[in-house]
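Researcher: I've got a protein sequence and the SMILES for zinc ion. Could you write out the 3D structure of the bound complex as structure tokens? I'd like something to compare against our soaking experiments later this week.
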Amino acid sequence: MWTDTHCHLDAAEFDADRDAVIARARAAGVMQIVLPAVSRENFDAVRQLAHVHGFAYALGIHPMCVDRAREDDLPALREALAAHRGDARLVAVGEIGLDHFVPGLDLARQALFYAAQLKLAREFDLPVILHVRKSADTLLKHLRATPVRGGIAHAFNGSEQQAQAFIGLGFKLGFGGAMTYPRALQIRRLAAALPLDAIVLETDAPDIPPQWLYRSAEDRASGHGQSGRNEPGELPRIAQTLAALRGLPLDVLADATSTNARAALPGLAVLPMHAGAAP
Ligand SMILES: [Zn+2]
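Model: Sure. Here is the predicted complex with zinc ion in place.
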């Protein structure tokens, strides 16, 4: 049984066939999925999806959504965390963090929202799900100033030293579709070499398609496969890359990474696998 620790199931890309996507994930053995929010506008959507389908969710404001967030979105997040603090399916504050890769984002505003959300994670004693893109050292500096109870550095693509620093602060590192590309040498090196208990699996669906779903802009323009959409049912096949890199049987990897997910997000450990409505 697999755990997808990061999936945007509420994304519009799934509007046409969300139930089929979920059914395929379950059929593939993906029994738990964590749905991070990205902005105030989707707090209700991730919570409702988690409840209807028996998954887990996180509430937070994504660094790439900060520019269009309003000043009162932080108090609104605090209110939502307070309103649902007794909800067993709320397992983290996320997705929060810093994006120093995409040009044109307001870095000072990102830092302000990130720091404020770390404080909320402390206040509500929740782990965090971090977006890390060319920003690991700054994220770590904030974490040292405002320690939280760990969490996940998602889609990790930093150095070994940065990985060890996150691990030292109680974090697991999320690996997914990016490691299926043979040219992703640094990610594959880390996935092979880090302690197994530091690794969790994720799809980040509908984003980060694995190699076999990737379509270049030229492919899409010429009508050869219109979508590079990723989905949670791809997780076991993505995991085959990690199993091969580490020389581990798939079932051992499924158990270990699901155990790691429960260690990173302790709320997962007490969740029933699915709600009444789910198959
Ligand atoms: Zn994400």
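Model: The longest strand covers residues 90-99. Residues 107-123 form the longest helix (17 residues).
Researcher: Great, I'll pass this along to the crystallography team.
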